Amino acid sequence: MAAGRAEARHDEANEPRSPVLRFGADRPLRLDAGITLSPFQIAYQTYGELNAARSNAILVCHALTGDQHVASRNPVTGKPGWWEVLIGPGKVIDTNRFFVICSNVVGGCLGSTGPASISPLTGRAYSLDLPVITIRDMVRAQAMLVDHFGIDQLFCVIGGSMGGMQVLEWASTYPERVFSALPIATGARHSAQNIAFHEVGRQAVMADPDWRGGTYLEHGVRPQKGLAVARMAAHVTYLSESALHRKFGRNLQNRERPTFGFDADFQIESYLRHQGMTFVDRFDANSYLYLTRSMDYFDLAADHGGRLADAFAGIKTRFCLVSFTSDWLFPTEESRSVVHALNAAGASVSFVEIETDRGHDAFLLDEPELFAAIDGFLRSAARARGVEVGP
Amino acid sequence: MAAGRAEARHDEANEPRSPVLRFGADRPLRLDAGITLSPFQIAYQTYGELNAARSNAILVCHALTGDQHVASRNPVTGKPGWWEVLIGPGKVIDTNRFFVICSNVVGGCLGSTGPASISPLTGRAYSLDLPVITIRDMVRAQAMLVDHFGIDQLFCVIGGSMGGMQVLEWASTYPERVFSALPIATGARHSAQNIAFHEVGRQAVMADPDWRGGTYLEHGVRPQKGLAVARMAAHVTYLSESALHRKFGRNLQNRERPTFGFDADFQIESYLRHQGMTFVDRFDANSYLYLTRSMDYFDLAADHGGRLADAFAGIKTRFCLVSFTSDWLFPTEESRSVVHALNAAGASVSFVEIETDRGHDAFLLDEPELFAAIDGFLRSAARARGVEVGP
Questions:
Q1: What pLDDT shows up at residue B5?
Q2: DSSP for residue B62
Q3: Which residue of B250, B287, B291 is the best one to mutate when testing the A interface, meaning the one whose CB has the most A CBs within 10 A?
Q4: A368: three-class secondary structure by DSSP
Q5: Which residues of B touch A328 (CB under 8 A)?
Q6: What is the reported pLDDT for A4?
Q7: Could you read off the pLDDT of A130-178 as tens digits, one per residue?
Q8: Residue of A284, A327, A335, A361 with catalytic role
Q9: Which of B35, B136, B137, B195 to mutate to test the interface with A (most CBs of A within 10 A)?
């Protein structure tokens, strides 16, 4: 049955329903692991039109389990794009004004080269043959996509969580190419607790015998149970205690009294099981290992001699950081330390902490204060850059 | 190999290296699920001597993965008792003065009747044939043990976490039998977030094919990988972010630079894997399901018409509640709501919130402020009860 479902699933990793940019042997991707990846490809989506001055491009960086389908129907789930509440014609990020680019990260499973991609060397999926991909590797690949569009400088790079890590890396690695940067609900390094939760998820995947040491695709199976457990564990960390209490409390699921058994008596259990089950239908388990690992490895200060301010020395990019009061995965303190480093580097930076009980997930939700902050920041940046943004 | 290890392990569930009290058909245990358990047994340890007035008995209630070996070498792990820092001759709970009783909870796996016990009806382990055991069921069984010692009133009932739930249940169900009560790092109900983490752990166990729908003991296997993942996930919740940062940070494990692979690069990963591996050698997976479930079901207010104060109406027991500032599993707020309910019920209650970064686990550690609080409370209670406690 697992195999059946795996076969029935469209092979989005190798034949994505997205435009794809292929880089041949002449354009390898240099990886932080010390080797090069070649050939490789990037699957992406764009929205709106690039203006003549090529000054209106916004790069959106997706989070751990996100993808390039940021503002249009997702062909895998059939659901709206993951940030359609924010991005589209007439929306806060108005695609009538801006040219929005979003690409699947390298290491992902929606068409950019990742562990589920067929290796041209072996004719089989890479599985674990790739080294760990870093946030910087993802950003280097994105820069090649931006080059392809002939864009010297992005008007803005925006993203939340793992996407926010990419935003910080973009600004640090290519400061002249980023006019403004909007890192949301993120940090400049992954904390010990966050590494711990990721490790629990990876161990859950690897404990599933259908993982087969990573070679499950060759065997027509998928470690669905293990990946579902990983997703459930992660999902708890995306919400706040108070949001869980407000949404579910100790309410029972379609029953008057507990069953004194191991069914999903409580609504929260039923909700989590659903989250786990739907996730495995759209995500590759090895990709989950790679992308959680990329976040664990992220430590911008360590990459600059231990001093975070040195990651942004002399930078002219305008920054706006956003955190959420109830986000315990990336608490406000993590954003604040980035703000302090940017201040120490003499950068232009604003910082908004938004009061909400929705936890880390708030960045993906219809959160008026978040949208107001993004709107205000983009308008101000657009005036400074001379980009027309409308009334 | 899993089977080999399972066979090699001493069958502590059925032949515990502890005194055992057996209750025959004439003394069934009434369960909240609406059925009776009979026969059943309780494995326990005692320390010190009961005085002539039978007024110096302290019942210690253990936490989720604890056991009766509270103040002497654990025969399974070979390690000291889990609360030997607190309990023993000359210690804060001085076994030269007090008679300390600690029993394995019903549903456990160290000799009291639980899912790994052989059912006299079938000759096989109960596995999932038992209904969910509640905290009140555990307490009812403990009361039968206390009866066995001819003790009408316990001088004190003490415990942390799931043990603290039992303390609250004891005071509520048998108020005249509890002179003083010390619930630590606990609450009067399990929160949605806590249920969520428990459900992740249970799903990890159940996802392991060696779980075999709960019948693994019949097949000579154990769901070790699933149980290890469950333990790892739970363990993260026992520590605080700051303790993890202080102890591990982003330090690498025996290496200078990351491997760009999925080895335990970080110390926190190596630590968690170790926690998972050692746990499965000492604990039964089905017991883990039952005991997590007992905590999920615990809701003292709901058992009393929704008003927590009504759980303690007219109670004369002296209470001391203790919470830890960095405990996010049972935050201070949970203890405070019990304190408010006890105040509303007119009970005698003191409350100590201890500043520490050690998280929920603090209750098991050498925490001087905790010991001072316990010492002061017990001395005061002993004077009131007329129990000799020494200088």
A1: 45
A2: -
A3: B250
A4: helix
A5: 241, 328
A6: 40
A7: 999 999 999 999 999 999 999 999 999 999 999 999 999 999 999 999 9
A8: A327
A9: B195
Three-class SS state of B380: helix
Within its chain, how far is the Cα of B179 from the centroid? 21
Chain A residues lying within 8 Å of B229, measured CB to CB: 200, 203-204, 207, 229
The reported pLDDT for the residue numbered A56 is: 98
In Å, how far are A201, A276, B167 from A270, measured between CA atoms?
19, 10, 30
Contact present, B158 and A201 (Cβ < 8 Å): no
Q: What is the pLDDT of residue A121?
A: 87
- pLDDT (mean) for A42-64: 98
Residue B115 structure tokens = 């899912």
The domain made up of A2-190+300-385 has a fold known as Rossmann fold (3.40.50)
- Give the integer Cα–Cα distance in Å for A117 and A119: 6
pLDDT, tens digit, for every residue of A216-239?
A: 999 999 999 999 999 999 999 999
Query: What's the rounded Cα separation, in Å, for the pair A240 and B157?
Result: 33
A20, A14 Cβ separation under 8 angstroms: no
ipTM above 0.90, yes or no: yes
Catalytic-role residue among B94, B303, B327, B361: B327
The per-residue pLDDT for A390 is 64
Whole-number average pLDDT of chain B: 95
- Polymer length in residues for chain A: 391
Instruction: Record the tokens describing residue B355, joined without a space.
Output: 């500043």
Catalytic: A360?
Answer: yes
Q: What is the CATH number of domain B195-292?
A: 1.10.1740.110
pLDDT attached to residue B388: 79
Q: Which pair of structure tokens corresponds to residue A353? A: 């902490």
Tokens of B56: 């110096």
Which residue of chain A has the CA closest to B277? A203
The pairing of strands A20-23 and B40-47 is: unpaired
The pLDDT value given to residue B390: 64
- Residue A207's CB is within 10 A of a number of other CB atoms, namely 24
Asked whether residue A6 carries a pLDDT value surpassing 50, the answer given is no
Give yes or no for residue B129 having a pLDDT over 80. yes
DSSP string, A35-73: SEE-SEEEEEEEES---TTS--EEEEE--TT--S-SSS-
The helix (run of H) or strand (run of E) holding residue A197 is helix A192-207
The CATH homologous superfamily for domain B2-190+303-385 is Alpha/Beta hydrolase fold, catalytic domain (3.40.50.1820)
Residues 6+ apart with CB under 8 A from A62: A68, A70, A82, A102, A104, A105, A159, A162, A163
Break chain B into its structural domains and give their ranges: 2-190+303-385, 195-292
Instruction: Decide if B262 and A206 are in contact by the 8 Å CB cutoff.
Output: yes
